[in-house]
Specification:
The protein contains 20 helices and 16 strands. The protein is α+β, with helices and mostly antiparallel strands. Among the domains are: 54 residues, no CATH class; 148 residues, Nucleotidyltransferase, domain 5, CATH 3.30.420; 77 residues, no CATH class; 88 residues, no CATH class. The chain has an eight-stranded mixed sheet with strand order 7-6-5-8-9-14-11-10, sandwiched between helices. Strands 1-2-3 form a three-stranded antiparallel sheet. α3 packs parallel to α20, α5 crosses α17 and α8 packs across α17.
């Protein structure tokens, strides 16, 4: 028997079950049943059974023998392909290059130690996407050594992509703490991680004006900020071949000695800010006329102390209010502690000028208020009072900062100088993402070269992640603020209407749920690739269909330029 579809003159199809038989030497057919009225899927099932196939419930047709998380790997892999990371790493193909590509992706997806990375990435499709299936921990370490050798060439390629002659170069320095005591770079220094008891390394990052990381350099943990700048000047001028750039660094970075070095080298302009001591000196000599802030929050002036430079004074009332409140809080806290010491002296529990001085020193150093207190210490007495004149002088400069630059007004106007200085927050954001999203810390590597390779690997991961965050902005709880180019250069950035709407609704404009960057990667990881096996032992693969949000995220990643 078989199924036959017959169309009449009117085009109507009739589905018949027919049986063939032989009569008088001729093959004839008889209709056994008319199943036109049955649903199409049942008709299809009957046709297969008539052909001799054995049908089983779909749940028994095959079994899933393995599942690997895939969606987030697909997103990162697509972003790296769009960014041509393979070309950045150098020409040709090698196993070390493939492993480095995989480690960059793994650092974004699930940052972990090299041992955990090698043993854990089999739960995803990452090994097959990057061709590193079976790579061992030792091979990962070997690829790190290879990466460090390629670092200068990779940085030159990044510079050609993103740094322009006469453009801005942003630079800042941070630190990350180290576990263990064997690394020769690890020393105690000023901890940006708030862990002064830990050994640390310092590292500086060079970015373009948008905050895209271009280069990294690692230093001993006690290296002073200005001492790292000369390396960056050599890199920009000699290695990157840029004849003229505007170097932007914070007030602790571009010390006067560094600026003199820039003048001597030539080919550099700079934008930075004055330290508090220099600001007080300008105020004392009368160059900084505070009365001008009565009508405006920004003005430009000159001083003989800074020949051939432009000085731009800014006053932020919101910052002034915060600093005033903070000072009052610290003064009150210091007074409270000093009062406790005074009662101990009066009761006779604490005696001796030296001992009293030590206890007092701990308090005023703790709150950094020594400059605002007048102290009289004797063997059996402690007297103190707030130096109101000192407080008043400092309060006069609350919220005031002065940006200094060598760039001519014809090249960059007053407001844009301040805006460009504020772009340093973009380097700080890169540091923040490397420390929180990419787990650059704590550092467990023991050798100097491995630490350098680890920092550079994290920088390359942040380079990819920077672009992913940018292209996914509409789907994320991103920092939607008014742009630097449009707003008052001194006033704090304000959320845009879109940002306010996102915060209120927690949805995109077309109703999709908003997520963090990590949350979106986790959402994508629920797209899995299954290996299925049928009764005869053969296998096939099937991948989860993305939902609306996942589909949008993958489409955005694959379409950005």
């Amino acid at each position: 028997m078989h199924l036959e579809r017959v169309k009449n003159r009117n085009g109507v199809v009739t589905v018949l079950v027919r049986q063939s038989y032989r009569e008088d030497g001729k093959v004839k057919k008889r209709t056994v049943a008319n199943i036109t009225h049955l649903p199409e899927e049942i008709q299809f099932s009957i046709a297969r059974q008539l052909k001799g196939e054995v049908l089983v419930p779909s749940a028994q047709a095959f079994k899933v023998v393995s599942s690997r998380h895939h969606g987030h790997v697909e997103a990162v892999s697509a972003a790296m392909k769009k960014l041509e990371v393979s070309k950045l790493l150098g020409p040709g193909s090698s196993q070390q290059k493939k492993i480095v590509m995989a480690m960059i992706a793994a650092r974004i997806l699930d940052p972990a130690s090299k041992l955990a990375t090698a043993s854990g990435w089999g739960a995803t499709t990452l090994p097959e996407c990057f061709g590193v299936k079976g790579a061992t921990e030792n091979e990962l370490y070997g690829a790190m050594d290879w990466l460090l050798e390629q670092q200068p060439a990779i940085e030159r390629r990044l510079a050609r992509r993103h740094l322009e002659p006469c453009g801005l170069v942003l630079y800042d320095l941070t630190s990350s703490y180290v576990e263990g005591t064997k690394c020769p770079l690890a020393t105690r220094g000023y901890s940006r991680d708030g862990k002064p008891q830990k050994l640390q390394v310092n590292y500086g990052i060079l970015t373009d004006e948008a905050g895209r990381p271009v280069a990294a350099r690692v230093y001993d943990g006690n290296t002073a900020d200005p001492a790292t700048v000369q390396d960056q000047l050599v890199k920009v001028k000699d290695e990157f071949g840029l004849d003229l750039v505007v170097f932007v660094g914070d007030r602790g970075m571009l010390a006067q000695t560094v600026i003199e070095d820039m003048r001597d080298r030539g080919g550099f302009e700079w934008i930075t800010a004055l330290k508090s001591g220099a600001l007080r000196k300008l105020h004392a000599e009368g160059s900084l006329q505070m009365g001008l802030f009565d009508e405006r929050n920004i003005f430009e002036f000159n001083s003989e102390l800074y020949p051939d430079e432009r000085l731009i004074a800014c006053r932020n009332p919101a910052l002034a209010a915060r600093r005033s409140a903070k000072r009052l809080e610290m003064v009150d806290a210091t007074k409270e502690e000093l009062q406790k010491i005074q009662k101990m002296v009066e009761s006779g529990r604490l005696r001796g000028e030296g001992k009293i001085g030590v206890r007092v020193g701990r308090v005023i150093n703790k709150y950094k208020m020594a400059k605002h207190f007048l102290l009289e210490i004797e063997d059996e007495a402690l007297r103190y009072r707030v130096d109101e004149d000192s407080v008043r002088k400092e309060a006069a400069l609350d919220g005031v900062y002065v940006v200094r630059t060598s760039v001519a007004a014809e090249a960059i106007d007053r407001d844009d100088v301040v805006r460009n200085y504020k772009r340093l927050t973009r380097v700080e954001r890169a540091f923040r993402c490397m420390k929180t999203d990419l787990d650059v810390r704590p550092i467990f590597h023991r050798t100097e070269n491995r630490v350098r390779a680890h920092i550079f690997l994290c920088l390359l991961a942040e380079y990819v992640q920077w672009h992913m965050r940018d292209v996914w902005r509409e789907l994320l709880f991103a920092e939607e603020v008014d742009t630097l180019e449009d707003r008052d250069p001194v006033a704090p950035a304000q959320p845009t209407d879109l940002a306010s709407q996102k915060k209120a609704t927690k949805q995109t404009q077309d109703g999709l749920p908003l997520l963090s960057f990590r949350g979106l990667l986790k959402k994508l990881s629920s797209i899995v690739r299954n290996t299925c096996q049928v009764d005869d032992g053969s296998t096939f693969e099937t991948t989860t269909e993305p939902d609306t949000l996942q589909g949008r995220a993958l489409k955005l990643i694959k379409s950005f330029t």
